[in-house]
Design goal:
The chain contains two helices and two strands; from the N terminus they run ββαα. It has about 80 residues and is mainly alpha-helical.
Length: about 80
């Protein structure tokens, strides 16, 4: 349940529940590599709210994004070659 406190801030109340199955939350396309999934211990709202650039989750996600961006040109060349 969600409510607004006296300061106008939104807050969750009650016991956390799983809203989707793990398969749904971690779904990927057949051509994608499973290891490109980035596991973060956070709920849906907090998954992208890092405390700082030193936050462990931020450092991890940033490194994975940089890794994927670095691989992108090769992947695009492969895709282009496969579509001809």
């Amino acid at each position: 349940m969600v409510k607004v406190d006296t300061d106008g801030n939104w807050a969750r109340t009650g016991k956390p529940i799983r809203m989707v199955t793990q398969d749904s939350a971690t779904w990927f396309m057949p051509e994608e590599e499973v290891h490109n999934q980035i596991a973060i211990t956070a709920d849906h709202s907090n998954i992208v709210k890092f405390t700082s650039r030193a936050d462990t989750n931020y450092v991890y996600v940033r490194s994975k994004i940089k890794e994927m961006v670095g691989k992108a040109p090769q992947i695009l060349r492969q895709r282009k070659g496969n579509s001809m």
